[in-house]
Amino acid sequence: MQRILFAILSLMVIPLSLSGVTIKTAYTRYYEDGEIRPIRQYFGGNLKLQGFRTVIASDPGTPAGQYFIAKLSDGKKGQASQVRMTLYASDNKDASVHSWNLSGESLSGWLYLGLTGKDWPSDDVKPLAWRIEILDGDRLLAEWKSFLWEMPE
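Structure (tokenized):
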């Protein structure tokens, strides 16, 4: 009987571990243009791949803005299709939802999600509460909620 119960419990845990990617920690930081832009971007390279980190800005031509930085466990290439972030900021009482396409990206190391250009008007605006979701279609692979996202139980 114990073996059957163990087998059933093991099968319930397997789908959680197969998702591969987890968010270990996350925080926010405002970056000025020169702090986040790699040298190769000045010579026509892209902003996205920067060695230990993947930088995805909502407006890559204007990389200055508020970044939501997530430390990820190693994921499989092409596993996640998008990242969705729901955010409450100091300049608006309503939540805003932003999403980034991750199709074909390898998720590991640090993921920098930037609200830049018109999406983040100034350094004076502060993020109050936010949630990051890494998705494969409609399936949730990983999630991180800021401290103020929900009331503790």
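Helices lie at 2-18, 33-36, 39-42. The longest strand covers residues 92-101.
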